[in-house]
Design brief:
Strand content: 15-25%
Structural class: alpha+beta
Number of helices: 7
Radius of gyration: 19 Å
Number of strands: 7
Order of helices and strands: HHEEEEHEHEEHHH
Shape: globular
Distance between the termini: 35 Å
Helix content: 40-55%
Oligomer: single chain
């Protein structure tokens, strides 16, 4: 990952706009969500005297509370993060959904889920919702493998997904 490249998710941001407007599906959302990288504000502390020694690293995630539950914050870009805190200059981790899922599973008694762009679209996503993304990932890989012989064949865009699904389910 290029640390000099800003975290941006234009496709996900567009799907979120369409989802809240009723013109995108949850499938569209989770497909883009699975591929995205998010900004995760946190305080990272280490008791290591230098980078080459053993020691403990602790991460205190910045969270939101609502309805008696705590949520990890996730932002699709810096503009969304600055809606939370316009002068934020603290530490920020870059996480994918699998990173969030790992934290949510390990700390299930602490966190109820993640709040995506909590001061914008404010989408709450639970660990259970993220776990359901896995079959879509494997389906995508399976589609690629089972339709590999079609690489030289031009399919009409409106029929491509149906044709690939038929090949996938009969392969």
């Amino acid at each position: 990952m290029d640390i000099k490249k800003p975290v941006e998710n234009p496709k996900l941001d567009e799907v979120i706009r369409k989802l809240t407007g009723g013109t995108a599906t949850e499938t569209d959302f989770f497909e883009q969500f699975a591929a995205a990288k998010f900004l995760c504000p946190a305080d990272v502390r280490s008791d290591r005297p230098d980078s080459g020694s053993d020691g403990e690293i602790s991460i205190a995630f910045k969270t939101l509370e609502g309805n008696g539950s705590r949520y990890l914050m996730a932002f699709t870009n810096w503009a969304e993060l600055y809606k939370w805190n316009s002068s934020y200059s603290g530490q920020t981790l870059v996480f994918g959904y699998k990173d969030y899922l790992s934290v949510l599973k390990q700390q299930s008694k602490i966190y109820a889920g993640m709040a995506l762009n909590p001061f914008g679209a404010n989408l709450v996503i639970t660990a259970a919702m993220m776990e359901n993304i896995k079959p879509r990932d494997s389906e995508k890989r399976s589609f690629a493998i089972s339709t590999e012989p079609l690489t030289d064949t031009k399919l009409e865009e409106e029929n491509e997904r149906v044709i690939k699904r038929v090949i996938h389910t009969t392969a």
